[in-house]
Each structure stands twice: as C-alpha cells, then as structure tokens.
C-alpha cells in the first residue's frame, strides 16, 4: 500500500492522487500523535478536577494544613534555639564567672549524635528532608537542655558553697578600728624595732591598749593557742577552710581553746605585748594555702571604699614595725 494524497494540479487543472514522500508521512504521524496525547492529558486532568472525591479533597486540605503547621514549628524551633543559646551564654558569662569556675566545655553543651541513622524511618516521603531536619534540631535542643540542666545543678551547688566560703574567709579587721589610727604598720619591708634592720613584715600591726578586744575575722576552728616567750608571744591560729588561716600574735589573754569553733566577730582574746614586741599591739597575719598574704586585701566587709583607701595608704608607709 502506498500513502497518497489528493492534490490539485495547476498544470493539468485536475485533482490527482499524488504519492507522499517519506518525510511528509513521518510529520503527519507525529502531529496526530501529539494531538492525541494532548487531548488525552487534558481529559484526565478535567475528569480529576470535576470528579475528585470528597475524601481526596479532605486529604489535600489536611496536607496543606500539616505543611503550614510544619512551617510554624520550624519558626518556633528557631526561637527556642536562640533562647537556649542565650541561657548557655549567660550561664558561662555570669554565673560561672562570678563563682570562679570554667565555662562548660563545648563538647558537653553540643554533644555529637553518634553514627546511627536515627531518621531512617522518615526516608522515602515527599517531606522526608524537612521532617528529618526538624527532628535533628529537636534532638539537638534536647541534648542542650540536658547539658544546661546539669550545669545549673552544678552552679547551684557552687553557689551554696560560695555562701559558706564568704562567711569563712577573713573579711574584717581583727580589732575595732573606727578611726583607723590603730593601723601602725603594714605588709612589706619595715625597720625591725629591736634589730634595727630592714626586714620583710609578713602581717599588719594594730597598735592598741592592753586589753583591747581581738575578733575572729571569719568563721572557723581554733587550731593553735600557744604562749611563747619570744617571737609571736601568746598567739592564736584559726583555720577557716578553703585554704585560709589567720594568726593573732602578742596577745595578753586568749579566750578560746584549741578545737573551739568560732564565728566572725567573736572575741577570741585581748591585745598585749607578749613575745618579741616593743609596745602593746596586735600582729595579724592571713595565710592562703600555707603562704602569708597581705591582710590589707581582706577587709572588704567592714570598710567603705574611702576608709579602705586610707587604710591602704597608711599600711604602705615604710616605717618601723612593732615586732
Ligand atoms: Zn607585726
């Protein structure tokens, strides 16, 4: 069989049957094929639109609703992550800094998940990637919450300990010192009153009449009450804990015994001039972790900034000490 087409021939003025070329045949077939496909697709779409079941429509509405909810949850996650970050920063920068403990290490705040694919069950769906990303963020936030909660427990414990520490460390002057006139000699090189040589004076001398009350400068336990004929003379040592000890020397009388618990401000004895001393005064020392430190740094509880400055100035004069 041959493909032919009826065509008008202008030379003969007649309609003739003309055979079609191979190219014309192919084009004809392709055009008709496209037309059929186009009509077919449109019909399917039209039928789907016209005859969609109520169940289908409800399902589409449900999917749209869930997509909207997913978007809302994503936004809320962003806010929660920011809040969490803020809490972590405050924890490190404020609480931990005040209490003098190092920040929580990064690997504890943001621990890894491990090698397991925890989102395998959500793979293979249209929204797999979104759901998987969201679940990863929720898991991250959970881990941060656990780490932060542990950190705050630690901070609470430390704050309680800190309170005890504040009561224990020496923080007042050992004699009543309203006019600061009793501060006679401070920390540093001083001329020794007896040997007349320049020696380092490891404490602070408060000149006061014999019998003046001497106070424990922080809570603690009396670990030494001793009477020497030279050196410190009659002296008391109090252990405050946290590495602190204080020493009160040249006293005329002690009112506590070894093992006694004392509180800050409690009278432990009287000023005198026992041991190596030229006049009635109290020699006071603060020891931190076994090392003598400048007592001037430990009067923060009972001096105003101005008084503190005056005391510091007086204590720095390189005069003659009293012991
Ligand atoms: Zn002294």
Structural description of this entry:
The chain is α+β, with helices and mostly antiparallel strands and 323 residues long. The protein has five helices and 15 strands. The chain folds into three domains: 4-50; 54-113 and 123-168, no CATH class; 183-315, Distorted Sandwich (Glucose Permease (Domain IIA)). The longest helix is centred in the first third of the chain and has 45 residues, at 54-98. 40% of the residues lie in helices and 23% in strands. Zinc ion (ZN) binds at residues 201, 203, 205, 283, 321-323. Zinc ion is lined by residues 201, 203, 205, 283, 321-323.
H/E series:
EEHHHHEEEEEEEEEEEEEH
By CATH, the superfamily of the largest domain comes out as Glucose Permease (Domain IIA)
Strand content: 15-25%
The count of domains is: 3
Largest sheet: 8 strands, antiparallel
Can you tell me the CATH class of the largest domain? Mainly Beta
For the residues shown, what is the average pLDDT?
Answer: 87
User: What is the overall number of helices?
Assistant: 5
Q: What structural category arises from helix and sheet content? A: alpha+beta
Give the end-to-end Cα distance, rounded to a whole number of Å.
Answer: 137 Å
What small molecules are bound in this structure? zinc ion
Which parts are unreliable, with pLDDT below 50 for 5 consecutive residues or more?
none
CATH hierarchy: architecture of the largest domain: Distorted Sandwich
Overall form: rod-shaped
């Amino acid at each position: 069989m041959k493909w032919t087409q009826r065509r008008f021939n202008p030379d003969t003025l007649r309609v003739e049957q003309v055979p079609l070329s191979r190219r014309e045949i192919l084009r004809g077939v392709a055009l008709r094929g496209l037309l059929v496909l186009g009509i077919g697709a449109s019909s399917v779409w039209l039928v789907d639109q016209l005859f969609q079941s109520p169940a289908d429509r409800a399902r589409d509405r449900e999917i749209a609703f869930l997509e909207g909810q997913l978007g809302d949850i994503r936004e809320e996650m962003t806010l929660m992550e920011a809040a969490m970050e803020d809490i972590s920063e405050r924890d490190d920068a404020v609480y931990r800094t005040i209490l003098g403990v190092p920040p929580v290490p990064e690997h504890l705040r943001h621990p890894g998940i491990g090698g397991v694919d925890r989102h395998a069950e959500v793979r293979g769906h249209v929204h797999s990637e979104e759901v998987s990303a969201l679940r990863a963020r929720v898991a991250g936030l959970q881990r941060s919450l656990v780490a932060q909660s542990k950190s705050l427990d630690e901070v609470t414990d430390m704050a309680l300990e800190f309170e005890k520490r504040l009561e224990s460390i020496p923080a007042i002057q050992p004699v009543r010192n309203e006019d600061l006139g009793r501060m006679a000699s401070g920390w540093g090189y001083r001329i020794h009153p007896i040997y007349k040589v320049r020696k380092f004076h490891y404490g602070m001398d408060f000149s006061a009449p014999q019998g003046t009350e001497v106070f424990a400068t922080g809570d603690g336990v009396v670990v030494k009450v001793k009477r020497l004929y030279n050196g410190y003379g009659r002296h008391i040592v109090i252990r405050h804990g946290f590495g602190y000890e204080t020493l009160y020397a040249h006293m005329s009388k002690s009112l506590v015994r070894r093992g006694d618990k004392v509180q800050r401000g409690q009278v432990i004895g009287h000023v005198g001039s026992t041991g190596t001393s030229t006049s009635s005064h109290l020699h006071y020392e603060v020891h931190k972790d076994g090392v003598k430190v400048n007592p001037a740094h430990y009067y923060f509880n009972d001096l105003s900034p101005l008084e503190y400055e005056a005391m510091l100035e007086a204590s720095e004069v390189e005069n003659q000490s009293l012991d």
